[in-house]
């Protein structure tokens, strides 16, 4: 299974402000009544984007000028709460290819890597600079560089970090671990054989 | 060199190091439910893979089941499709399914321990963030996403980086009317909703030594609300007494061998931790949330924050939370009118939760206009409550007594808030919209505090409402 080597992501960006944005906010539980992930993109941030009658609330994703953005910017502890992979699936199916925040909740972060979505962490003031730049020019191209560990936009450069194991997996095209896990068959059996509760 | 339980369990289950530096970790027990597993089975089929160890995978149905109607097909065709899909997947791949007809169905984090499947010194994974619950037994238990469910199904392993370990001591003695739920709400309030990022929490100290298994489960359950990927308590005689005689517990000579092995996994005296936090039990009070994340908690006798009294980020988040909760800045939380009282969930849906409330609820009535529902976490819990006459106490008080499921904790079923109803809830999350209405409001609290809210119709101090004496 040859996977893409994700060394950088370039595109337009949109800033969704807020700290502790939880996965219930990213995708409300009622949209998880499904047996596939198809079509989840349209329910991304549903309850903060839509009124009960389906009309739109003010939200960055509802602004025409940010349509087509592929990089999502936000605040601290993004993706906290439920382990639902429906959250990164909705983000990806909406069209985002990368997320940059001040910090991620751990399960969400791992789920994103597994889907090939780089999640980079940047300082608050740097995210604010990117947000300011894209708010004044929504067409501005923003580039996440996983090798240089930086984000470039409009002639500016800011530092960004990503956990090394996940960076390695993305840039080397091994972010979906299944192939490598399956290759460990003999070692799995040997480990299981040493554990009495599994041998039984 | 003395080691922590986390280190020992991790090392015993480490298969090998992967190319990116993560560990391929063997998962001894895999628990699945209907919401996060169907896509994983779909991926298995796409890759023509089988389930590697079907006898180490156990399924139940909990999130979508109605708690007041069981005839299938369910009224909700989407929910009906999900239970049928789980049934099909379990049959096709040879997985034990605790379907309703077995009498063992319930919330996955209640069923595992109740059946004796959850055991010390093991690794457990489940596509559900509250999998940390199982750490109460001295297991290392991870909430995972659906692609990782596929990995565990296909290989009984997953890729994971090692966590740091933070020891949290709670010393001394809890005051009367203070419960395990208050302990974890207090810990999250002190350490923050993301304070546990990168850590497993090891809970210990005199309070945990005295705690029952069910109390330990309540605390471990909400580790994830503090950002910790896992939380555990070292196994001891309380653990072994709970497990003895359970359906999946070892029997006969194997029991003694298992206990000896389990004991060996407990953290060694003098082992080093990456961080240590010590909390005085006397500082913990009945705690309620006032905001939109579980870290936004206060004592029942405190006032909600005033955004004018704080600055920067904190002001923004207080303003956002109070606007959503429709609470006036700086007002006392006590006396806030509620609409719904919910007692249940994987946090507080066990026998002892209902037992403790029943002690005080006898002879009391739910306040007029309040919808109060009590939902046992499993069919097993429901049966025990019936045998002990506990369901009758709740019904007599005016609670609706339901059948097992996740119910109103996340409202993927007919139990949900309507409009901006305010719910006094024994569950684990007060996120915006969590209980099924995009404007619904949640105040998290202990089961007895939920009962106090139900009988007074307001957020109340259970110690006053029920004249709770010293234990």
What features would you highlight for this structure?
heterodimer, A: 200 residues, alpha/beta, Aconitase, domain 4, four-stranded antiparallel β-sheet, four-stranded parallel β-sheet, 9 helices, 33% helix, B: 471 residues, Aconitase, domain 3, 17 helices, globular
Biggest sheet descriptor of chain A: 4 strands, antiparallel
Q: What is the 3D shape of chain A?
A: globular
Runs of chain B in which pLDDT lies below 50 for 5 or more consecutive residues are none
* Tally of helical segments of chain A: 9
Count of DSSP E strands of chain B? Answer: 19
**Amount of helix of chain B:** 25-40%
Please give the most extensive interface between any two protein chains, plus how many residues each contributes: A-B, 62 and 82 residues
Helix amount of chain A, in percent?
A: 25-40%
Structural class of chain B: alpha/beta
Shape of chain B: globular
Global mean pLDDT of chain B: 97
**CATH architecture call of the largest domain in chain B:** 2-Layer Sandwich
Number of domains of chain B: 2
* Run of helices and strands of chain A: EEHHEHEHEHEEEHHHH
Distance separating the two termini of chain B: 40 Å
CATH topology of the largest domain in chain B: Aconitase, domain 3
Largest sheet of chain B: 5 strands, parallel
Mean pLDDT of chain A: 97
How many alpha or pi helices of chain B? 17
- How much is the radius of gyration of chain B in Å? 21 Å
Task: Break the fold down into its secondary structure elements and pairings.
The complex is a heterodimer of chains A (200) and B (471).
Chain A lengths: L7 E4 L1 E3 L7 H4 L19 H4 L21 E3 L12 H9 L3 E4 L4 H9 L4 E3 L2 H13 L5 E4 L4 E4 L2 E4 L4 H8 L6 H6 L1 H9 L2 H4 L1
Parallel strand pairs in A: 2-3, 3-4, 4-5
Antiparallel strand pairs in A: 1-6, 6-7, 7-8
Chain B lengths: L4 H9 E4 L5 E4 L2 E4 L5 H9 L10 E4 L16 H17 L2 E3 L9 H7 L8 E4 L13 E4 L2 H10 L1 E4 L3 E8 L8 H12 L7 E6 L1 H5 L2 H9 L8 E4 L3 H7 L9 H13 L9 E6 L6 E3 L7 E3 L12 H14 L14 E4 L1 H4 L2 H11 L9 E4 L4 H9 L2 H8 L2 E2 L20 E4 L15 E4 L2 H10 L5 H4 L6
Parallel strand pairs in B: 3-4, 3-6, 4-5, 6-7, 9-10, 9-12, 10-11, 15-16, 15-18, 16-17, 18-19
Antiparallel strand pairs in B: 1-2, 2-8, 13-14
Helix pairs in contact in B: 2-5, 6-8, 13-15
